[in-house]
Design brief:
Length: 166
Amino acid sequence: MYSLNAPVPGRVAALAGDLFPELVGFESVRQEHSVLLKRLGDDEFSHLAEQVRQELQGAPAVEARVTGIDYFAEPPRGSQPVVYLSVASPGLQQLHEQLVDAFGAIDGLEGEDYVMHVTLARGGGDIEAARALAEREIEPITWTITELRLWDAKHGEAARTIPLPA
């Protein structure tokens, strides 16, 4: 499975690290952090990469901001709950919508259902722990996204980097 992700700066990774002691009770704690912009499927890589490149042609660098901590009590897929950092970015939202128009939406996850976020942890069923984390105040973190990464989930690595502006 390939996806298009926006990397996060070290300040966001440091925040996730600071929250780690409060996340250890969850089944899975993310070590790598990014904003998932669009799931792209399992098409042949070179064809998919070219489609994405063409679709993003002219796309600018965009601003993003971590605004708080939240959770999905009942995510559409996988174990629950999912604790995440909320991300606000009109520019990324616009790119998501453009990519959904080009590649289609995955029901329950994209299009109107899309919630821009950075996953911190999931599973374990402890809604109270997720709720307590969501009540925690954090300092917002703002950054400029100057590249997107075509992520290869099978190999757990970026297969290609797309600079912004594209």
